[in-house]
Predict the structure.
Amino acid sequence: MTIREEFIDYCTQTLEVNFGQLSGEIINKVNGKKNLNDKPGVSDLKDFIDLIELNISVLSGKHKATEICNALRTKAVELTGKQKVPDGPIGKDIDKEINAFLAKNTLPTESDITDYAKYLTIKYGGNAKKVQKDIIEKVKTQVRTGISRKKINEEINNFLLRYPQPAQKDVDDLVNYIRLLKLSFQEDEVREMIEKERLFKKFHGDQELAEQPSELDEFIDIIKTRDKKDISKTMQKEEISYLIKDDSGVSNELLSEFVGLMTPAENDVKDALEGLGLKHMIKKK
């Protein structure tokens, strides 16, 4: 059976569940506008599915039509999933789309990532599993960077409460302290953040702009509990456990990394500060 025959047969069976005998008429109508060859590419299958969705949305409504056609897109990915993602402009387009997706979705669920990977594979070709893995790695990097930035902001605020007009040595000490926390940062950027916050506090006091809690804030609240069992359970419930998974499943090492990023072991930090002569940076309870 050719790819075309297998795909058409699957489309017909899927539509029959919802539209009965009309399914044959729908497929024939679409086939008249978009005739597939025996080995259609992903772009051909995408166009074919788009035409089906356009036709059945009149009968079932847009939401149901999208649901049905997503099943067809999944099948299309299975049939063409071994096709290689081309290098060059198309590869860059995929990367651009992923970045745009993550700009709107800081912490997407596993289902969202899976569906978006299928969508990109239908649109550009390639292996859906690989695209999904690439998206997950980008999310992990984005989350680590986001946590680092929030932690740095927190440390800067605490620092300026203690040193409203810090000397250069005080700023140097804070930069060294942040480095001890193993946070992702650029030194020049941190120094600029310190000065910007210092000036803001000088002219506006401790006034803070009200912000709605973000997805990242909610994730930080989860890992701040430090109870790894509860964290893992909550992350699985929220469909974000991919952040702490490797090829073998949930990784205790990855989980510890996220916990340590936001809440480093107090004794380790204390010993490191004392070793660098930064004992005055230790927070007093």
